[in-house]
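Troubleshooting: if your tokenizer reports a length mismatch, compare your output against this known-good record of 126 residues.
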Amino acid sequence: MSKKILVAEDSSVIQNLTKKILSLQNYEISAVKNGKQVMDKLNKEVFDLILLDIHMPIMDGMECARAIRQMPDDKNGKVPIIAITGNANNYSMDDFKDAGIDDYIPKPLNYDSLVETVNGYLVDGN
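Known-good structure output:
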């Protein structure tokens, strides 16, 4: 059974490229454009990993990660979260960890390192 990834990214270009790249790895991809939509999805479905843009409208990635970690459902409440950010310098790894984010990938996205990071959590980690 393929692993399910939720991509939260407000840029359609990055969202579409990410979906394409990860679909080629046989992952099942769902995509949303803001943190509120992430929470709506998580209330209905279980995911194996979340790629979370930090700068999104309505609810940003940091706020969204904290909300995910507060979910009572063990499966989604503990899902690996990988931040995608163009402003990695604005945050330390401690800031990400405090919000419940497991890892991050800087923008512009390097799709080789995206696949490597995702596989590290979903293929090697499980």
